[in-house]
Design a protein that fits this description.
Layout lengths: L7 H18 L7 H15 L9 H19 L22 H19 L3 H12 L4 H8 L3 H27 L8 H8 L3 H15 L1
Helix pairs in contact: 1-2, 1-3, 2-3, 5-7, 6-7
Length: 208
């Protein structure tokens, strides 16, 4: 680390919100964010003497966040929770009825499921471009990749997004399978009163 380089405390104070948001965009679930943020800054603490300032601190931090998110993704064995609803619920009306709120939450859940299906490199570009409104040049600088790579990943992510949306909508619009009434089946299987009486008369006649 060169003379006058930022300290761990200075980096944390200035960029902790950036790291938090980056990890959430990269798929770390809400309940795991505190631990994931701590993991990022543990790496920062270990690697800070090697940081020469050749790239922006945010670029360096985002690279660490991607590795932390990828490691957690590999170790995940439970279904992700939906926490990143601000992109879909940006204009939530506090007076909205329960039905509208349920639809918004369903949309947020669908968004999260689609993002979870993407490779983390595509997810990073897609969320930075589509949700955060960053330019291709800014994303290329942040990720330290060529601009062509950014747009290639964005194109693949958009294609995957559209396919997932179409598939999920098709599943939702599929008519439910017809339900059979167990009550009617049970009633039809039971003998009627007339048949019971006829059977009893026949048995009585045979006995005589």
């Amino acid at each position: 680390m060169t003379q006058g380089a930022p300290t761990l405390r200075a980096i944390y104070d200035e960029h902790v919100s950036f790291v938090w948001k980056a990890l959430r965009r990269l798929g770390v679930r809400e309940s795991d964010l505190p631990d994931a943020v701590q993991d990022v800054f543990l790496v920062v603490h270990r690697k800070l003497p090697e940081f020469e300032g050749r790239s922006k601190v945010t670029t360096w931090l985002f690279g660490i966040a991607m590795r932390v998110a990828r490691d957690r993704q590999r170790l995940a064995h439970v279904r992700r929770q939906v926490g990143d609803e601000e992109a879909v619920l940006a204009f939530v009306d506090e007076s909205a009825d329960v039905g509208a709120e349920a639809e918004r939450r369903q949309a947020a859940s669908m968004l999260e499921a689609i993002l979870d299906s993407m490779p983390i490199e595509q997810r990073a570009v897609f969320t930075l471009f589509e949700l955060d409104g960053m330019t291709g040049d800014a994303i290329a600088e942040l990720l330290e990749v060529p601009l062509g790579t950014v747009y290639s990943r964005l194109r693949l992510a958009r294609e995957a997004f559209q396919k997932c949306v179409a598939r999920l909508k098709a599943q939702q619009e599929r008519p439910p399978a017809p339900r059979t009434s167990t009550v009617r089946t049970r009633v039809s299987d039971e003998p009627s009163d007339d048949s019971v009486i006829s059977s009893r008369r026949a048995a009585a006649g045979g006995a005589v």
